[in-house]
Amino acid sequence: xxxxxxxxxxxxxxxxxxxxxxxxxxxxxxxxxxxxxxxxxxxxxxxxxxxxxxxxxxxxxxxxxxxxxxxxxxxxxxxxxxxxxxxxxxxxxxxxxxxxxxxxxxxxxxxxxxxxxxxxxxxxxxxxxxxxxxxxxxxxxxxxxxxxxxxxxxxxxxxxxxxxxxxxxxxxxxxxxxxxxxxxxxxxxxxxxxxxxxxxxxxxxxxxxxxxxxxxxxxxxxxxxxxxxxxxxxxxxxxxxxxxxxxxxxxxxxxxxxxxxxxxxxxxxxxxxxxxxxxxxxxxxxxxxxxxxxxxxxxxxxxxxxxxxxxxxxxxxxxxxxxxxxxxxxxxxxxxxxxxxxxxxxxxxxxxxxxxxxxxxxxxxxxxxxxxxxxxxxxxxxxxxxxxxxxxxxxxxxxxxxxxxxxxxxxxxxxxxxxxxxxxxxxxxxxxxxxxxxxxxxxxxxxxxxxxxxxxxxxxxxxxxxxxxxxxxxxxxxxxxxxxxxxxxxx
Length: 491
Fold this sequence. Notes:
The protein is of the alpha+beta class. It folds into three domains: 3-113 and 133-166, Cytochrome Bc1 Complex, Chain A, domain 1; 197-376, CATH 3.30.830.10; 390-490, PH-domain like. 34% of the residues lie in helices and 22% in strands. The chain has 14 helices and 20 strands. The protein has a six-stranded mixed beta sheet with strand order 1-2-6-3-5-4, sandwiched between helices. Strands 9-10-8-11-7-12 form a six-stranded mixed beta sheet, with helices on both faces. Strands 13-14-15-16 form a four-stranded antiparallel beta sheet, with no helix packed on it. Strand 18 and strand 19 (453-456) form a beta hairpin. Helix 1 crosses helix 5, helix 6 crosses helix 8 and helix 6 packs across helix 11. The longest helix is centred in the middle third of the chain and has 20 residues, at 220-239.
């Protein structure tokens, strides 16, 4: 029978230890923010952890793309006090500390995902959902108390939480979280490409985003990513000595699909070699699948995990969280089928995903990907044609002395704001503006949900004042914000 405390699902792990370990997980992360509130989940985590800092037990907290997690370990009584204080702080966040905590958060310079993961998710989703991990928004100093309180009340409700307990359950435990119904999560539509695409930026690394189907009884999608990550790590780190950090991350999508990102960092000067090794690993596994030894290693890892853990409890936790994310239920692992998995079955997963893959290469290293059939893509959507509308050009002086200005053209249509630059034509619909940022130098930057950014600066083109007036009339004031004054670690 399922166990609940104050509406929170409780899962008890077996064990005879005298102390208590707990993990309180909420199905909410950075992807549930907006451009205007980027960082609000991390700010809330800091504020509520401040309320329990005086307890003499081990504790920690983390925010990632999909979840917010609090952990504690100590005597049953102390852990009970931790949970009581924590939940009460989530119900009424101590927002009076927000301005002070903003400096601490900026000094921490924490991130919810590796930069390659964040970049590729931004290419796929723009300035919404998982794509927000790449963006700074207004910074922590731009958050307001009402942003924090509203976020806590919407997402940190009992029906969006799971408590795992190992050891004695604290006596008379109460979990007084904000009252409210289960939150509704809408999966944003992702940008798609006609064939595998590669984008480039200034992160010294290589990576790829693959959209994979729901896991089955042999966890085929997850195992396929394990195979790819292991092959890349072997080649880039252990064989060629170019990488240290090789990893993978994912975000859940509609219907149980997942966007997986595998990445490998590159030491200075080896960026092209890392891209080459990455592409070779990906294409070979897609055509031929893993070697028998590679596949046997990954199957053995899964079998070890099943033997070491409590598989049913682990599956119950996964399914409980999955329901909150709108995912289908995971069936138990079929050990017999897992043991009989063939390399061709792994190759089939990659072959089906490759047509919509988004690769990442450091600057000029994209040529390696293009040779493997990836087409060069843009970080944000661009089109070749300028739509009809009222046009604005840079002043003559700018066009005479600034090469980039010669190709620039702004267009205002009834439905959108448009900029043509060297990359192509960027278009942001008036009803798809994610935010408007006022920068330190006086430029106003319009940011679209599609990931495009269009500067509006009176010094850059004639007629900017007219567009600024129209923006102020069209865009709600709660979407406007100032550029943060807090740099990373204040450096």
